[in-house]
Amino acid sequence: MSDYRFIKFSRKQNRADLIFNRSPRNLLNHEMLEEIVDALGQTREDESLKVLTIRGASGSFCGGLELQERTSERVGLIMPLFTRMFDYLNEIRGLTIAAVEGEASDGGFDIAAFCDILIATESSTFCHPEVSFGHYPPIATAILPRLVGRNRALDWIISGDRISSREAHRAGLVNRLVREGELIEEMERYADKIASYSAPAVIWAKRAIDRSLYTPAMEAMRTSESTYMIDLLNNIDPHEGLKAAIEGRLPKWRDK
Fold it and tell me: Residue range 212-227: average pLDDT?
């Protein structure tokens, strides 16, 4: 797949750039996820790749999965593809850089947090709203506690509060905070700096950290996905909550 509809992907020498391009919020649907997986699959085991940048078009990073993709008819198709995207991101040899402006919500929050380096504008926000419609974010439960600590991750996930980039920076999630209009410049500067280094040094420095810290995270991601698909979705409330969110009304919880 080379002609993409919902993303832009380019590769030049030892750098690749992925842009979400489904305005206005860059919401993820099945076709867009297929395109992302295809693009990442082209580069995931390339030892000459030193850096991959990911950002959104139209002033938003990514608003996450479309609600319709979570319905019982669609979720069995979307979740394996969603998980494969993170498998491929994890297999990228070089450094991955997320450049966030606007919102990074739901799956968009997951993608930004999963990258090695996160650069964000001062007005950007992060949010996991899934619990409000009877679901929870499987990827976030596996990786956020390792990034910001167990209690803060639990607070962010359960409350569904919108987190400012300043708070995310203080918590250690955001590496670099920039003023509006400076995001692309900072991303380019950082990416060019990494691309100027030796590929083995970049790759093995990253792998050394990941082997000591993140190997259990991928196993945890599998466990969380299984819990989501088998345990959570066998209840009534997740389906009622999602239906209510799609219909724009308050859910009628049955607590089962």
Answer: 73
